[in-house]
Amino acid sequence: MLPVPFIHLVACLAGDCALLCKESKSAPMRPTRFFAVCLFVWAVFPLQAQVCPGGGVNFSAAVPFDLAWIYGCNTGTSCNGGVAFDNRISCQPTTSLDACAPAPSCGTAGWNASNVWFTFYATGPTALISCFQNTSLVLGIQAFSGGPSCGSLTQIGCALSGGPSSGVQLPLSGLNYGQLYYFRIFGSANPVSQRTGLYCFCGSKGLNDFTILPVNISKFKAMPGATGTNLSWNVPDTLPRRFVPERSTDGIHYSPVGGTAALSGLVYSMADQNAPAGLVFYRLKEVFPDGRSDYGPVVTLKSNTARSFSLLGNLVNNNSVRINAMEVGELEILDLMGRQVGSLHLKPGTGDYALPRLRTGVYLLQEKRMHAETQPVKILVKSS
Fold first, then answer.
1. Structural domains in the chain?
2. Average pLDDT, the chain
3. Hey, CA dihedral for 7, 12, 16, 19, is it positive or negative?
């Protein structure tokens, strides 16, 4: 017969409250004493979360990597505090490896068994898949790019533990930011008993679920320009991804603006040359290499607002321009770089307005308003 203290130790570790009032002929234990023993056991032997199998039983059922699995890891060199995964037959009934992926370049073909599948999105060019054993298990890790169809995967790395308790790490490099990758965990050993067991991901780095990646767009602007609406936005890095500006007239249905954005440093810019009149909504779509996307904030612009002046001729001679103004107002004179080079103060009626001394070239007259923007008017200045 097992000694009573051992029975209660097992009960505590298993969380079996059915033994709470169980008594032994040799040593009955009152409930209060049982709770005291349990508190001691839980303090000395903390319970570890365990999932079965935790990942997908095949490629098509691959499970996204969850950072919660490694949050509790006390170190990166053991499973202490991490979530334990199980590829034993009760959790993974299929012992043969999924043939949708190429066979591992590590391990021995006749010994490989019981693969469990996962996915992750790269947070940078490098990542580390780290595994440690909770039982006697020779662990293999095989990582892939490609997918999601069967037969579309390409191996990008494979590693096998040196023994049933030594752990294994698979470093990956050359990854594309935000791209989806696959990997599987499997056993590979001559003894069948060492092909399955418990393991964890403590020490892993650079593996994320895509949903926690931030949208890396800032200072998205839409401003009136000489050739339409000028769009610009800032990014914090030059990692591979593309941006698709979209417009809407109702704030609900969006369509791509079209055109190609120019990159200068970390600032993108382009012109919407077909901006419709009235209130227009703009947003920026960020597309990652694997096809997933996210959106930045929406900005609005009321384009082609009715101007309060009209220009009587676009060709300027003798540094004078004739303007018909409907109200008192102010015009900014801009060069094609958007820099202000002068201003005009308008009075109601038609009149000639002297310009500052300007070099020959094209300039813009932009109406200055508090709550609306109008499209600027181009003038051609010929120096005398």
1. 4-44 (no CATH), 50-212 (2.60.120), 218-303 (2.60.40.10), 309-381 (2.60.40.10)
2. 80
3. positive
